[in-house]
Amino acid sequence: MNIISIILLLWRINLPTTSAASAPIAKPNCTTHCGDVAIPYPFGIGPNKDCYLDKWFQIDCRHTNSTTSANYSRQVPFLKSVNLELLNISLFKNDRQSVRVKNPITFFSCEGKETRQPQNLTGSPFIYSQTDNTFIAVSCGLSATLTSDHGTVRECGSICQNNTNSDFGNCHGIDCCEDILPKAELSSAFSIKIQSNSSTSDPKGDCKYAFLVEEDWLMFNSSNFRDVKHMDNVPVVLDWILNAHDYGERFRGKTDQSGNQSTPFCNSYDDRNTMICACQPGMEGNPYLLQPCQDIDECKGSNECGGDVCENFAGGYSCYSNINGLRCTQRHSAGGKTGTYKCHFFGRASEIIILGLDSGVALLLLLINAWWVHKFLKKRKTIARKKMFFKRNGGLLLEQQLSSGKVNVDKIKLFDSKELEKSTNNFSIDRILGQGGQGTVYKGMLADGRIVAIKKSEKVDKSKLSEFINEVVILSQIIHRNVVQIMGCCLETEVPLLVYEFIPNGTLSQFIQEQIEEFPLTWDMRLQIATEIAGALSYLHNGASFPIYHRDIKSANILLDEKYRAKIADFGISRSISIDQTHLTTRVHGTFGYLDPEYFQSSQFTEKSDVYSFGVVLVELLTGQKPISAVTGSEEEEYRSLATYFITSMQEDRVFNIVDAQVLKDGSETQIQVVANLARRCLNLNGRSRPAMREVTSELEAVQMSRKPSISDDQQNSEGDDFVEDDAVGHWDVESLSEVSASY
Q: Where does the secretion signal sit in this chain (predicted)?
C-alpha cells in the first residue's frame, strides 16, 4: 500500500465529522420550528395558509408555562385540527409517514382524574399506527376492551398479585395486561372500556386506567406502570396519508421516479391510493417542497469502505485501495447495489524499490493509529459505562428533582468517581466509619484537604434508589447547624455514592454505650445534646420551607462533632410534605425500640411519631441503657423495650432506680424529674397528647437555664413536674413489634 494512500486514510479516519448546510424543510418566509420541534411542509404554522397543505396540517404554536418556573414560558406545537400536542414529525421512514403526539390516558374510578377516551381522528388524514403502538390496561382483576370504528379489536385481562413494581416491557397479565393493535385494520377512532373481575379484583379498590402508547417509548421508559397514573397523556404514533386523487395534481410531474438523482418522486400504495413522496436513495430534503434533494455524503458517516479510502459521489460512494501497485475501486450506491472491484496498474518499476520503505513507515503509522483508536474506544467505553451507571443509579430521577426546583442546586456537587476512590484509598476497609441499613460510610480526604464522609450503597437495589435520591433532595433543602450538611453525590459508579460533611466523634449511641472515665457523659452534656436534637427536629417540622418528617430518629443516627454538638443524619426514608398535610400514609419503616406504636397500628406517620422516637433517645440519655435489651435470668430468650420499662418505672415511682449514675451525680432531683416527665409525655401512646418538638425544645432550654450558677436550685419552679398517672400511657411490649422486619 502506498504511503500517500495510508496517510489519506488516517486523515479521513481522524477528521472530525462535519455536515453540509441543512436542506430547507419549510416554504420561504414560513416558520420552521415551534420550540424544539421541527415543522416540515406539508405541515406549517399559521396564519399564512400557504405555509401548510390544508387545515389538517396546520400547526398551532402555543405558549405554556414551564413546570419548573411560572415565569418561564415555552412554545409547544399542537395539531390544530385534532387538538393534540405534537412531539415530532417523520416525512419518510420505512415507507411510512408519521407523527408522534400526546394522547390521553383513560382513567376509571380514579380520584381527581377525568375519564377521557383516545382522540377521535375520523375524517382526518391521521390514523393510529398499527406497527408502532400497543394497548395497555393497568390494575389487577380487570377485563379491558379496545373498540375501534370497525368494532371490538382487542381484549385483555389481568390477575392480582402482591407486586407493585411491574416494569415497562414486562406486563404479563399480573396487575396489568397488554395487547398489540391488529395489523389488518386502519383505525382513526378507538374507545376503551374496563370491567372488574369480581373473583380476582383488587381488594384495595385501586384506580384502573388504560391507554394506547408508542411501543418504543414503553420499552425504554424507566418508570413503572403505576407511575403512569400520575400523567395525563402518553406518546402515540399516528400515520398520516395523502390521497393521490386529492393531492396528485399538486405534485404533478413527480409521480414517476425520474432519472435525475436530485428529483424527488411520489408513489401510490395499497387500494386506498395512498401517496408517499420521497427523495432518491442517497439524497435528503423535503420532497413536498418541489425543490431538488441534496446529496448525502456517506464518507462522513457509516459506510462499507472499512480501511479503504472513501470518495463520495451523487447518490453513492466509492472505496479505493492500493494492492501491490494496483489501484482498486468498488462502487456503492445508496440503493444497496454494490459494484465489483476494478483494478489497474498505476506505478512505475521504481515504486517497487521504495515499497519496503513505504511499508515500514505505513506499519509505524498503523501502530500509532491502532493505539489511538484503542485509547479512544476505551475512553468511549468508560464514558458509556458511566452514563449507564448514572441512569441506573437514579440520575434521571435526580435530574427530574433538579428541574422541578426541589433541590438546592448550589449545595449539590456531582463528584468524579476517581476523586472519591482516591480520597478513600479505593474504599479501603480501614476507612470505614460505620454501616447501616442505607449502606457503608467511609472517611475520605478530598484533593483540597477537606475531610468528608462518603456513603456507599451495599448493592444496586432499585427499591433503595428512591431512598438514596430522597436523602439528596431532603438534605439539600435543610440549612441547620444541628443537621448534617450534604456536599454532593456521585452516580457514575456501579453503586451510588453520597458525600457529606465529616463528623469526627461518632454516634450518640456509641458515646452512651462506650463511656470512659476520662471523658464522662455529664448531665450538662446530655441536656445540651437533647436540646440540640429537639431544636433540629423543631426546625424540620416547623422551620423548613416544607415540613419534613425524619422517620428514623435514633441515637445511632445522631452524630457528634469535634465539640460534641449533635447533628441529625441519615435521611434515607425521610419525607417532605405539603403544609396543609397532617400525616403521611406509608408502609411501616423504622427501628425496633424507637417505632411509634400508633404509627405501627395505623401506618399513618405524623410529626408526633418523630416526637415518640425522640422520647426514646431522651430516655437513653437519662438511663444509659439500650432501647432493646435482653432480659437477664430468663430461661427463654426474651427482650425488653426501654420505653415500656421506663413508663412502668415512672408509674411505680422508682424512676431514680434506673437513671444513669452519672446523671444522679451531676443533676438535681428536680431537673431529672422534669426531664423524665417530659420523656414520659413524648412516649404517650396517644399521639395527640404528645408535645410538639417546639414545646419540647422550650422545656429543655428552661432546664438548661436552671443549671446556670446565677440561678440556684431553690429558685427553680418545679410546679407540675411531679409524675401524674396517665391512663393513656400503657405498655407496649417488644413482642407486639414482631411483625416488623428487623431490617427497618
A: 1-20
Q: Which of the pair, 397 or 406, is modelled with greater confidence?
A: 397
- C-alpha 114/C-alpha 136 separation (Å) is 18
How large is the angle between the packed helices 669-682 and 607-623, nearest 10 degrees? 150
Q: Which residues contact 539 (CB under 8 A, 6 or more apart)?
A: 478, 480, 482, 483
Highest mean pLDDT among 191-195, 299-303, 359-363, 407-411 belongs to: 191-195
Average pLDDT estimate for 158-179: 70
User: Measured between alpha carbons, how far is 248 from 255 in angstroms, rounded to an integer?
Assistant: 8
CATH fold of 408-501, please?
Phosphorylase Kinase; domain 1 (3.30.200)
421 pLDDT more than 50? yes
User: Which band of pLDDT confidence, cut at 50, 70 and 90, is reported for residue 716?
Assistant: very low
Q: Using H for helix, E for strand and C for coil, what is the string for 244-289?
A: HHHHCCCCCCCCCCCCCCCCCEEEEECCCCEEEEECCCCEECCHHH
Other Cβ atoms within 10 Å of 341 Cβ, number? 12
Q: Which of 206, 308, 552, 570 is catalytic?
A: 552
CB atoms near residue 450 (< 10 Å) = 13
The ranges assigned to domains in the chain are: 82-240, 244-295, 408-501, 508-737
Query: Which segment of 193-207, 502-516, 729-743 scores lowest on mean pLDDT?
Result: 729-743
pTM for the whole structure: 0.46
pLDDT, position 341: 67
pLDDT at 549: 85
Of 244-258, 359-373, 471-485, which range is least confident?
Answer: 244-258
Q: Mean pLDDT for the chain?
A: 79
- Asked about 60 being catalytic, the answer comes back as no
For residue 448, report the phi and psi dihedrals to the nearest 5 degrees.
Answer: -85, 5
* Contact call for residues 682 and 615 (beta carbons, < 8 A): yes
Closest CA to 587 of 463, 692, 442, 406: 463
Please give the single-letter amino acid code of residue 310.
C
Q: What is the DSSP letter of 573?
A: T
Task: Give the residue with greater pLDDT, 654 vs 171.
Answer: 654
Report long-range pairs for 563-567 (Cβ below 8 Å, ≥24 apart).
564/505, 564/511, 564/525, 564/528, 564/529, 565/481, 565/482, 565/528, 565/529, 565/532, 566/482, 566/508, 566/528, 566/529, 566/532, 566/533, 566/536, 567/481, 567/482, 567/483, 567/484, 567/503, 567/536
| Greater pLDDT, 361 or 201 | 361
AA letter at 743: S
As a whole number of angstroms, the distance between CA 251 and CA 242 comes to 11
CB 553: neighbour CB atoms within 10 A?
27
Query: Superfamily assignment of 508-737 in CATH?
Result: Transferase(Phosphotransferase) domain 1 (1.10.510.10)
- List b or e across 205-236, with b for residues whose CB sees 16 or more CB atoms inside 10 angstroms: ebbbbbbbbbbebbeebeebbbebbeeebbbb
